[in-house]
Amino acid sequence: LYISRINMSDMTAEKEKRHDDYSQDENVERHVRKNRWISVDIGGKPFLRFNWVSSLLASLVLWGFVAAVLIDDENHTNPKLPTEFSRWRRWITVNFSWMYILTQDVWFIFVLWLLFTKYANIKLGRDDDKPEFSDFAWFSMLFSCGIGVGFYYYGVSEPIYHYRQSANLQSIPVTNDDQKAQQAIFQTLFHWGLHGWIPYIVVALTLGVTCHRQGLPMTMRNAFHPLIGDHTRGFAGDLIDALSISCTTFGVCTSLGLGVSQINSVLARLDGSVEVNQKTQTGIIWIITAVATISVLLGLKRGIKSLSLFTFTIGLVLLVLVTVCDNTWFLLNSFVEAVGTYMTWVIQVGFKCGTWTQLNQEFDNGYEYEGKSLLWGKDSLSDKLYEATGIETSSALAIEKYDSGPSWMMDGWTIFYWGWWISWAPFVGMFIAKISKGRTVGQVIKGAFIAPILFSFIFLTFFGSLGIKMQRAAEMALDVTVDKSNWSIDCAASGYTGGAPSSEAAIALADKGYYLLSCRSSNDRILDVMAPYGKLTTFMHLLVLIGITFYFVTSSDSGSYVDDIISAQGHENPPWIQRVYWAVTEAATAQALLSASDAGLSTIQGVSIVAGLPYTIAICYCCTSLYRALKREMRDEDIMAQRHGFVVSSLDILELYSPEGMPAQSPSAGDRFKSNIIALFFPYKGLKTAAVAAYNDDVMGTIYAVVATCTWFAWFLCLCLSDIGEGTASIAWMLFVFFVAQVAIIRYQVRAARSIRDNFLNDLFATFAMYPMVISQMELEAPYIEQRKRV
């Protein structure tokens, strides 16, 4: 009873401390370590307020990227960076497509499950908090920050690409051109649908619960507080925030890189004197950055809210206008059919990894770069086949022989999209959490899923259908022959040269407002769709220009705002100079990305995929963190009865074994270091101590330790001898997996003996990533197991 009273008293005190006003310096500084906090006043007014470690790390990454682009090679063409990003993109797709695909599906299942549980009623804030924004304003900001300029860039271009330029792609069965058209719409909706928004929702809910409800500052590090506790205030938290700033900036700049070229094309269409080149686009970036900076300085409610409402309204007007100007009933038919097709196939396609199409790359040098295989730990299959038979194989031969699809579909589209959405997750997720205070978990899930996705589907289906309609009309008028083997057309034979109509018939048709869109550039397609509407065309083009520009501004100012908040470790009102700095950093990164993209879209795609990979792992941990936070808020018996963690943390190495708040009776830093070194080279000592204590049996514990240690020595030996014979390295890593599994089992037993909450998957991952720290952690926990048994 006494213990219960103490716990209730602590809970009451905890609630009284919650919901601080983090626009005040003193409240923020309670959650910041003094040796990391820069606080400078000039003339009695705040001038700087930021965490120098996370800000420096993020700045090094971003400005390092800018510097790398600016350093030309001897020919002043700088081909190295685009080539490297293309290589990284291919390497990630080859080795981690399964992870991108699987994690998106697992996150969706998890969030959908939350919607039908008691946790859906938990409010992001105090129980009496009310939403700060109206439903319309909230939805407008959700949509504006979550979609951005990609809507205009891909709204027509992507369906046309899947319709006439994706070769033999068959994500769903296709036997005729009607089904090919429907597949094109479906594939577009798939990339912009449920799977895209799920990373946003996971991050938003995690931050909403830990910050609005549990009273922590709104910064990405605190999303992991239920998992790693006060390590979020140390170097681990600094790494999380630095990664979040970098990921946010690269994700936003991917959109800006697409948007600036689109704006340039619209300006050239409206005024023929405007040239489409990098010089013009650079000017656009910096002009819009200046506007976005003003919006950021005005703040969330005055600047970003107003821009979001205006931008969303422009898009809505444009959508209604094309709907009434064209065949309304055709568009409504297409929307209903598209939604039905999406619901029918989304689960199957959602798990599609392109297994057999990607296999085709193994039959030529598609898996090689500078003579080395891109398959992690594997040699090139094509070289082996050639050495055996003297016959050269190729992916083209495999595609023809097995009637297969294009092998580049995954990294060029699906994995690019997943990486793009994920790289936006810290930015959009934090922004959604910021504007969703006072709403419940269930309301955020339904609002972020239903409203934005429904509107996205209407926009994409209507514009995509109009694009396919125009493509067919032009094909009919120009008597174009469609190659049914790959659903493509010959642009040159159809009267198009360099993306423009060149034959007399094609020019005459273009004068009437109809184009072969598959032969046009991506930037022109959404403008071409509006060409048949006579005097309204120019007005619609102006709406497109305004819409893209303001989506550009809202994406830029929202990204800068979030970067600023994260760098200030959750300070809600950091000094204006910091907001300007992050806005300029974002613009410089966008310009660098634009400069590095002369080789095409592959660099932009590569940046998104590379930036999204580490955050894929982070969002997996966000799911665990959110689940723990929700269970704690509901005071579930299983989690309240368990201990938060071990006596020492495996992350203490990041704090040089002297984390803040370490109890006086804890092992010294020297003992910790010694224990880690011994575990690194001789795991038997720590494993035996932990296993004997966990199993309460000297013989059994010794056997477990001996077997695991022998496995470790076999792994180390095979790894050292991996160059001697083929397959030795594979055997080595197989042994390492066995070793990790054995250590994870012992860790599971130690946790059970000490009632420490966690799960076996985390035991596996922790052991795989840092087995010496895990073994040392268990060894130092063992004496407490013995004490508990004696009690």
Outline the structure in words.
There is one protein chain. The protein has 791 residues and is mainly alpha-helical. It contains 30 helices and 6 strands. Strands 1-2 form a two-stranded antiparallel sheet. A two-stranded antiparallel ribbon has the order 3-4. It has a two-stranded antiparallel sheet with strand order 5-6. Helix 18 (409-435) crosses helix 24 (602-633).
Short structural description:
This protein is mostly helical and 791 residues long.
Radius of gyration: 28 Å
How would you sum up the global shape?
globular
How far apart the termini lie comes to 20 Å
Strand order of the largest sheet: 1-2
Q: Main beta sheet: strand number and arrangement?
A: 2 strands, antiparallel
Estimate the helix proportion, in percent. 55-70%
Parts with pLDDT < 50 across at least 5 consecutive residues: 1-19
Residue-averaged pLDDT, rounded? 84
- Structural class estimated from helices and strands: mainly alpha
List keywords for this structure.
single chain, 791 residues, mainly alpha, two-stranded antiparallel ribbon, two-stranded antiparallel sheet, 30 helices, 6 strands, 69% helix
